[in-house]
Amino acid sequence: MAYDLFSRRGVRDVGVNELIERSGVAKATFYRHFPSKDSLVLAFLAQRDQLWTIETIVSQARLRGTTPTEQLLAIFDVFGDWFVRDDFEACSFINVLLEMGPAHPLGQASIDYLAKIRGHVQALAEEAGLQRTEDFSRSWHILMKGSIVSASEGDTGAAKRAQQMAGWLIEHHRS
Amino acid sequence: MAYDLFSRRGVRDVGVNELIERSGVAKATFYRHFPSKDSLVLAFLAQRDQLWTIETIVSQARLRGTTPTEQLLAIFDVFGDWFVRDDFEACSFINVLLEMGPAHPLGQASIDYLAKIRGHVQALAEEAGLQRTEDFSRSWHILMKGSIVSASEGDTGAAKRAQQMAGWLIEHHRS
DNA sequence: CGCGAGTAAGACTGGTCTGTCTCCCTTCAG
DNA sequence: CTGAAGGGAGACAGACCAGTCTTACTCGCG
Asked: Is pTM beyond 0.90 here?
């Protein structure tokens, strides 16, 4: 409920009143469960990490490839399918970070979840036996985030483009 | 005035009342010049294109390199200097696009200005005699946008990383 | 039965937002 | 000198915001 509204329209555009009304819960009940709207947004970000990062991107990518290298590249296959969906809503972590700024607690939380994504990439890179996996995952993440922004602009081929550069990146981290 | 506030804190976070008060102009006067806040934001985006895209990124990059290829790569040298500035405020076009969505007029305008940036890259690629410059500029733009988001997260080395991948991209578009 | 916990509904507070309107002063042209 | 135009200051409207609180109702448990 709140997840769909927040991920589709952004955390700033959806007010507490609307959430209350749509979920059929009373306002006092809401504030008994969450001390503030920000704490609900924090819960949303945690749910986003679980549903999107872990259960969609990472697990899908692991399913689509047999070797760790294939699984890494498969991330952009998953992105390719995701970018053409009509309910494509970009990355909530990037959205919240840019909307609230890195100093805001919600921006900080977004930075942490983005670092977690980078951790998944780094783990796959380790499994693939690549060199300098910290640098690798940071470069890889640039491709992921850049392609997401390009997809927001309407470039549905952004995933393929990023995947090509990702292939070169893997090559340069083999030795 | 409005330019600094909008670019630093985002167009949604800065209200008309604050702009009025800081600029010492009367509210009626403001609304005589601009029919709505959105039209002021449109003017801001145009100014951002002029001051930042054209007069900072493009002209700086052209100054720092002698050949078109060097000038392309110099974009990320300019980014590197920009990322470490304490008043680094990311890319207003990306911010507005993600904040308002691609359907909103301001989101559309941001998409147009981002396409303009891609046009500058494509022109440099033409000068450098690269192949498939449309694809090239779209891939290049992924690196630009990805590194900006990474810089927002605090990765000050994002420009160097993007520049390395940009070098590989140039190589693959030579023939 | 009786009581307390939880909840729906929604009024309310104090603040914000965009945008309109009034009042009054200054400036400048004829 | 006079009158029109424009701008500063700010009240105001109407809508929204997050968050608090009151009222009335419905449960489950002893």
From this structure: yes
